[in-house]
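4.2 Preliminary Data

To establish feasibility before requesting continued support, the project team ran the inverse folding procedure on a target of 112 residues. The structure was first converted into the token representation described in Section 3, and no sequence information of any kind was made available to the design step. The complete token record follows.
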């Protein structure tokens, strides 16, 4: 009986050593410079919160967006910083608290 499962044979891109050895302030500065040179919507809608040495870039949204618009924006931004700054970077959105009004009314608390 054969298996129908297939797994990717590609290694996950890692940030360059130059990215890893920088301080967080230097990493944030290079991302901010790239953002200034990028699309206006990146500057208007995104705030870079953290730039970790493992390549994770944490962003915050300045305004609420639909799921489709948010996904497109984040994918475009990730593709841009991969080409402009480092190919091993990944974009993550800062976790928000629980905004479900029904859970909040019942007194259920979800910790992020």
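Position-by-position output of the design step:
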């Amino acid at each position: 009986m054969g298996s129908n499962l297939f797994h990717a044979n590609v290694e996950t891109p890692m940030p360059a050593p130059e990215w890893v050895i920088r301080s967080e302030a230097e990493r944030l500065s290079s991302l901010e410079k790239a953002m200034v040179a990028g699309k206006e919507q990146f500057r208007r809608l995104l705030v870079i919160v953290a730039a970790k040495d493992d390549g994770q870039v944490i962003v915050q949204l300045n305004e609420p967006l639909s799921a489709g618009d948010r996904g497109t924006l984040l994918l475009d931004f990730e593709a841009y910083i991969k080409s402009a700054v480092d190919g091993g970077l990944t974009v993550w959105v800062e976790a928000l608290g629980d905004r479900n009004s029904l859970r909040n009314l019942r007194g259920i608390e979800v910790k992020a």
